[in-house]
Amino acid sequence: MDTTPNPSKHDAQHAIQVEGLTKRYGEVLAVNGIGFAIRQGSFTALLGGNGAGKTTTIAMLLGLVRPTAGRITILGEDFARHPKALLARMNFQSPYADLPRRLTVRQNLTVYAKLYGVRNAKAEIANLAQELDLNALLDRPLGELSAGQRTRAGLAKAFINRPALVLLDEPTASLDPDTADWVRAFLARYAAEAQATFLIASHNMLEVERLCDGVLMMREGRIVDRGSPKALIAKYGRTNLEDVFLDVARHGARANEIAAP
Amino acid sequence: MNALDSGTPRRIGAVLLRHWYLISGSWPRFLDLCYWPVVQMILWGFIQTYLMRQSDFFAQAGGILLGAVMLWDVLFRGQIGLAISFFEEVYSRNLGHLLATPLRIGEYIVALMGVSLLRTVIGLFPATLLAIWFFGFSLYSLGFALIAFFFSLILFGWSIGLFVAGLVLRYGLGAESFAWAFIFALAPLCGVYYPVSILPGWVQMLSALLPAAYIFEGMRAVLIEHVVRADLLVYAGLLNVVWLAAGIAGFLNFHRAARERGMLLQLGE
After folding, report:
1. Does residue A67 sit within a domain?
2. Does B13 sit within 8 Å of A88, measured CB to CB?
3. Which of A8, A249, B25, B247 has the fewest CB atoms within 10 Å, i.e. the most exposed one?
4. Shortest Cα distance from B126 to chain A (angstroms)?
5. Is A181 a domain residue?
């Protein structure tokens, strides 16, 4: 992750570049002029308490929320000018969006494969079913599945177009520890194979420490700190990221020590 | 940004496929589409049979009520079919997923129209066949005029359906009841079962703005006078252009407002 607070150059090295991104709902400033850049092929965590602005930030990166101000550059292109072309190369999973529960897993994946223009949809669905242990569930309606099984189906949808940029909001929240572990292994394997970039909002600090090479810490709509998990742990004099998170959530960042570019 | 590209038919097809999976995967859902048009047709068929025995007018204008009820269903099913197809995405909290794909909003509107057409045809076709069997009235006896009537009415239905879907986008599922209420509020003005000329003068002025009023007048001209009134079809067509443009503009504006207010990820049951 690039620690530059307000990156001004747009280059091919960065999968996401955000400058002065702001979202205001009436009197409420949900996201307050944030700036960051995420290197291609990296895993970055977006951390913060409830209402910190993580979901709004991700929704703006997906075009689902219109920013009040600011600029988003994704995969080297201005998102405001080419949203649909860029969305074809991205995908996401969020607890705020479900797939139709009356359709089977296979039907859902087939529909999304067509929407994303996946060339060999059958093979891609078979491959994802294998990777995410969905083979026995493919022809069952989503509504008959457990929360964890639905999460895995949602992840299959998030990878159906082999995206270059993946945005995941709490990807392992409803999974048992064993399943969560191999899902994390799948994410790491995919990132290595596809040179994909991940932006993950998570409350699971162990997951972030294991997967992510960069962290953006949000509080009250601002990015209040950033750096690698190890650097942040050292900076706050803690032994793990969870304690760093609690420090930031309760007391704010060590503002005078925010990582320099 | 281009409104259309080579992937447009595929993406529209994907939304149609999603709804075909939904309809074809459930026999109760499939039967529900046909149930009300058949019940309506039977009810009005018997009313018409009774009136034909009591009145020379109805005896000579056979099928006038059955034709009216089935054409009204084209308008109603067209409108509700579009709105319900949109609500399905809201109920299932799938709208955020759909709108974060390469699917353009214009493509989504066309797809909703396609689903509505499919639902209307599935719903009405059995009723038209049963009307022949039970009451000896064939809607197809309207000839080529039926094609013009059908598309004029379904276009008007889509205009209203798009506006209602936009209301739900902007105000949430609390506005869902408009899908049912709005169209029935227009029914008395459309002259479905009676000529618009019996309405009070100021109401007739409102009726003159509705494409459906010309279509039902045209249907009576075919069934009673055996003439196809091209002038009525032209009026209806011109008004449909205005109504459809207003419906699409309304939906797009509500979509813009929903995106502004962060509603697209929040909508759901």
Report:
1. yes
2. no
3. A8
4. 25
5. no
- Asked if A101 and A227 sit in the same domain, the reply is no
**B22 to A55: CB separation less than 8 angstroms, yes or no:** no
Q: Which two tokens stand for residue B24?
A: 């074809």
Determine the residue of chain A that is closest to B10 in CA distance: A114
* Together in a domain, A96 and A154: yes
Q: What is the pLDDT along chain A (261 residues), one digit of tens a residue?
A: 554 444 555 566 899 999 999 999 999 999 999 999 999 999 999 999 888 999 999 999 999 999 999 999 999 999 999 999 999 999 999 888 899 999 999 999 999 999 999 999 999 999 999 999 999 999 999 999 998 899 999 999 999 999 999 999 988 887 888 888 888 999 999 999 999 999 999 888 988 998 999 999 999 999 999 999 999 999 999 999 999 988 888 877 664 444 433
Q: How far is CA A46 from CA A11, A122, B52, B72, B128, in A?
A: 22, 34, 73, 54, 58
B228 has a chain A CB within 8 A of its CB:
no
Tell me if A178 is assigned to some domain.
no
ipTM given for this complex: 0.89
Contacts of A255 (CB under 8 A, 6+ apart): A224
Query: Quick one: closest CA in A to B101, which residue?
Result: A87
The answer to whether the CB atoms of A84 and B104 lie below 8 A apart is yes
Query: How many structural domains compose chain A?
Result: 2
Report the gap between the CA of B99 and the closest CA in chain A (Å): 7
Measure the CA–CA gap between B9 and B4, rounded to whole angstroms. Answer: 9
Closest-CA residue in chain A for B95? A97
